[in-house]
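Table 4 source record.
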Amino acid sequence: MSGLVLVTGGAGFIGSHLVPKLLSSGFKVRILDPLSAQVHGQVPVDLEWLGGTGIDFIRGDVTVRTDWERALKDVDSIVHLAAETGTGQSMYQVARYNEVNTQATALMLDVLGKIPHQVKRVVLSSSRSIYGEGAYLHPRTQQRVYPSARSAAALAKAQWDPVCAETGDTLDVVATTENDLVSPASIYAATKYAQEDLVRIGCQSMGIGFAIFRLQNVYGERQSLNNPYTGILSIFSTKIRMGSELPLFEDGEESRDFVHVDDVTDALLQGLVVNSSPNTAINVGSGVATSVRHVAEELTRAFGKEPNVVVTGQFRVGDIRHNYADISRLKELLGVQPKISLKEGLQRFADWVLEQPLPEDQLEKANQELRDRKLMN
């Protein structure tokens, strides 16, 4: 497949790595992006990479029908990256997250159904958050179980780990597959899962191929350093540069699957070029669970400093305890194998951060917004 690719949110973190790969692969690229202040800062300055040949940039919004109509002209495929992505923020900006994530995706499909087009494939960036807590094993029965979202009451008692509702046993986390139960625990997650259903049903009805990528915790160079609502490594990097303590929620042992943006964009690209459209959901991650404490300490060392972490015992309603991906389908369907280790990826990220202006530390502002709404202790 070649031709003109529309990348929504293409001026953002993932798009800034994907677009050069698309151009190198022979695609022409059109970007639809509003350049929002929350992601890019008040005056976007890190957009030099947009100067490549073959890029048609439209400053527009996925919530606006006329912007979709303009952006979809002569397009052969779509990579839909545009989204609001803050788990905590989604819990009190519910309408905004629904509008940008869910309704905008519905609008894309509505426009495709009403105008002449030549779109042959849609690639959607979804999220591992749709699984909620994901898959666990019962320690005694070895049965696969899917715990409910942790309650505020349990978290207030420092009951961090999910337990069996019937026996009270602490459950053992395992890699989550695409066939495991979907159980969103936040508004953000609910909107991402709604996106998946819209793309799957809409594309099938119109005869358009699709690939849905459930991304784990993506990090790397050019991620927003201005957005305090998403991107734990960005938040930590600012504090490290300021010589501040790194605050760890809960007991610091909650774990995530950290995957470098280069590995993610390799998967997205392959979702476009593979001859047979996947027409399914695919996990994208490293396949390794890493505690937040460990990643905080390793990131500090990547900056050449000694770790200075403090366990706060604080928590956010809607956060999950553990989740990491089974990436067998990624390897089998697309032949994609993550290549960048956490150590290498963190060093690359730290080296890039040190070349950027020191941003304002806005974590406390974001946390206070959650506390004001009783979504954080």
